[in-house]
Amino acid sequence: MIVENRKPLKIFRSRSESATVVLTSLGAVALLFSIAAAETLFALALLALLISRRPLRFPARLGLPLLAFVGWSLLSLAFSSHPMSGLSQIRKIFIFLVLVLVYNAYQNRKQIEWTYKALVAAAVAVSLWGIGQFAGDYLRLKHEDLPFYQNYVAHQIEGFMSHWMTFGGELMLVLVLLAAALMLGWPAGGRLFWWIALPTILIALLASFTRGMWLGTLAGFVYIFARSRRALLYLLPVVIVALYLLAPRSLQDRERSIFDSQTDSSNRARLVMLHTGLAMIKAHPIFGIGPERIGPEFLLYKPASMPLPHGWYGHLHNDYLQIAAERGLPCLFFFLWFFFEVVRLGLAANHAAGHAQVAVTAAFLTAGVFEFNFGDSEVLMLFFFIFAAAAAWQRLRQKSPVIDSGLLEHHRKIAVPNTAAETQA
């Protein structure tokens, strides 16, 4: 009788599971420095996860709208006037695998906690780099005797990213996560580190002059304060006014420009995009004009009576308008359905991790009103990572339930997440 030795196989699978954790965490940190490195690390992590042959789980209520969104996007591509121009969007579909990877990668909550700390530390590093860029730009423009505001808004700080919107979007997500750690007490521990990191990242985000990301951060903060420190919510307008009065003149100019629809070229360009996007939706309400067709066909739908301010018209700078115009109203419905389920999942958890998840989602969706951040791969992957890690925390919490600190002090009865909503992938 031959007895099969399964010990080497168990060791191999165990090492594959450990490699999955390490590679996933490194991929999340790499998002703040290089998308190529992040994608490579996530791909290797997914391969290690598959090799480990662990059963894959994913919240079932998220799967259906996600598959519907992807399916309708492919239909939109098929019905496009130039399908080949939208093939790059097929590659972007693989970004959604980050959700499955992160949700299944971690085996205990300590791994998630340390990854979040590493992510915040990386955000501090890129924030310091960005602040240095801002100082360099200020000194250079002053030396050249050029008006700072008018010249700086033409090319703002980018950190290690290729665009300031990507830089600002990433800082926004980490900053809201950081506020959740401080106000909601999740993850526990490291509060001194959180308090040191918060003003550094906040200063860099303000220096990026990305107004949509400021408003997204505000939305996330409002939710966090409403859930934890309601008195701070009432003081928030006072804090905003105080920050405005204490801010340098150039920052005050940028804040006032949010409401300037007459002279601010960016705001005027967005009004043109709004009317153009609505014209696209009216002409193609079911499948849209096709992925990657906004830029090439923009002038065909722009109202003739509206002048074209200086700006970039490759997309519509709005998640909701962009998806409806590009892929049709049904695809926008699936998009909203997916995020409804994301929020529902966080609220149903009824504890700090779930509320942190909702706060980050509120920031992402609010910023999406002013920028097509759903089409920004770095920002989207970082959001997926933060959301899926929070959801994984909730899943792991049931295996070894403990009473979290912070917000949970106000909740004596903790609702246990319903794992019946999970299915085998």
Task: Kindly summarize this structure in a few lines.
This protein has 425 residues and is an all-alpha fold. Helix content is 69%, strand content 1%. The two termini are 37 Å apart.
Would you mind describing this structure in some detail?
- This protein has 425 residues and is mainly α.
- It has a domain at 59-247 and 327-424.
- 69% of the residues lie in helices and 1% in strands.
- It is built from 18 helices and two strands.
- It has helices spanning 7-30, 35-52, 60-78, 88-93, 97-105, 109-143, 148-152, 164-183, 191-207, 211-228, 230-246, 249-256, 265-283, 294-301, 319-327, 329-349, 352-367, 377-399; strands at residues 57-59, 422-424.
- It has a two-stranded antiparallel ribbon with strand order 1-2.
- The longest helix has 35 residues, at 109-143.
- The radius of gyration is 23 Å and the shape is globular.
- The protein starts with 6 loop residues before the first helix and ends with a strand.
- The relative contact order is 0.14.
Entry keywords:
mainly alpha, 425 residues, disordered C terminus
Strand order of the largest sheet: 1-2
Binned, the helix content reads 55-70%
First-residue to last-residue Cα separation = 37 Å
Principal-axis shape: globular
Mean pLDDT: 87
Low-confidence stretches: 401-425
Order of helices and strands: HHEHHHHHHHHHHHHHHHHE
Given helix and strand content, the structural type is: mainly alpha
